[in-house]
Amino acid sequence: MEVFEYFLIVILINSLIIQICDGDKNPIFNNLITFDEYLAKYQISVHDQATYLKYKAKFLQTQKEVINFNAKPNRTYTQGINQFAHLTLAEIIKSSFGLSLLRYPILNVQPKAIIKPPCVLKPIDWTKSGAVTPVKKQGNCGNCFIFSAVAAIESATYIKTNKTYVLSEQYAMDCLDKDLKINNNACNGGQPDYIYDLVISKKGLPLNSSYPYTGNDNKVCPVKNIVSDTAIKGYITLFTDNEDTIVCNLIKGGPMSVAVFVNSTFLKYSGGIYNDVASCKPDLVLNHAILMVGYDIDPKTKLEYYIFKNSWGPTFGENGYIRMQKGINLCGITSLVQQPSFIANPIPIG
Ligand SMILES: *[C@@H]1O[C@H](CO)[C@@H](O)[C@H](O)[C@H]1NC(C)=O
Ligand SMILES: *[C@@H]1O[C@H](CO)[C@@H](O)[C@H](O)[C@H]1NC(C)=O
Ligand SMILES: *[C@@H]1O[C@H](CO)[C@@H](O)[C@H](O)[C@H]1NC(C)=O
Ligand SMILES: *[C@@H]1O[C@H](CO)[C@@H](O)[C@H](O)[C@H]1NC(C)=O
User: What are the residue ranges spanned by the domains of the chain?
Assistant: First the structure.
């Protein structure tokens, strides 16, 4: 956070210097990085002039929005430039989201929760105990639901065995059509429970290192070196609007897949506690899945927040993570919360 603020100050000072030098009338807006620098930084190749101009216009607009937003006095988070700055929301949804609730709400009937009220909320951060693998990047494929579910399985496995396994999203992707008979191109979206069901039936997943990620749906499911430690047996699905219940299950059972509705300001998030309910409305169609890994209270603002791991690489947000305000059903986070388990019919608390 402090490093970010330092850079922000440096950037603002630099932009003021540029502004004085070139006489731009807008004191806040200036090109912090040029479009060509941006393309180079994110290794974006553009093949024709029309596309170049289109991307450049969008990039400049995004940069202006980011600077104007960061100048607001009462914000609890900052926006920044990342790999999405040149794209429209529709383009980003197609390439980097990937939740479609084909099976929802016809999920397995879950056992009813029995303990209430279940627990006292307390800060938890599963990344601190080593239960969360490095941030991954789904790339140009709408398969967030696979990344979210595999990440949850990696964490559940660590919590059970104290061993870190970086598991194969590619294997889950390739086996999905064949084994679950879901007629679906995995780059076109799905829901995390597909993956839980698949891993239950396959008795685990192989390592990413033995079955590496390519992002192409090969639709063949070879016999592979399944890591038996990763053989989950079931999962819970929380249908609750009580966000304390969600935190209690996070504390008790570890990281969980969460379906969200993501809109434009989420994409520009670069740090702090995201809370734009006007943009990230809970009543809209869920389109993305992420991994809830933590909960805490900000000492300065007293805001309660969740910590989520995303699958857009470390250039998104806070090194790939986003903190989101708790208690306002931000982005519809209560809609579909799922947690893998090594018990066949786990019972949620709350
Ligand atoms: C900031 O928030 C405080 C408390 O909600 C409010 O009194 C103040 O007017 C706000 N300032 C601006 C500039 O919006
Ligand atoms: C878990 O693993 C870590 C490092 O691999 C070790 O320091 C720790 O003692 C282990 N804990 C348990 C309960 O085995
Ligand atoms: C998974 O495998 C891919 C392909 O080899 C590699 O690029 C990526 O870094 C691996 N992910 C992790 C977290 O190790
Ligand atoms: C996204 O947010 C904008 C405002 O930021 C809003 O106008 C729009 O309705 C929201 N929903 C969708 C689906 O884009």
Answer: 2-74, 95-341
Per the CB < 8 A criterion, the answer to whether 326 and 306 are in contact is: yes
Query: Pick the catalytic residue: 70, 82, 86, 144?
Result: 144
* Ligand 3 proximal residues by C-beta, below 6 Å: 134, 136, 166, 208, 212-213
140 is catalytic: no
- State the fold for domain 95-341: Cathepsin B; Chain A (3.90.70)
Ligand 1 centroid, distance to 153 Cα (angstroms): 43
**Per residue in 187-245, pLDDT tens?**
888 889 989 999 999 999 999 999 999 998 887 888 889 999 999 999 999 878 889 99
For residues 239 and 235, give the distance between their C-alpha atoms in angstroms, rounded to a whole number: 13
* 47 a catalytic residue: no
Q: Which regions of the chain are under pLDDT 50?
A: 1-31, 105-109
pTM (two decimals): 0.85
The answer to whether 309 and 155 have CB atoms below 8 angstroms apart is no
Tokens 């570890």: give the residue.
Answer: 254
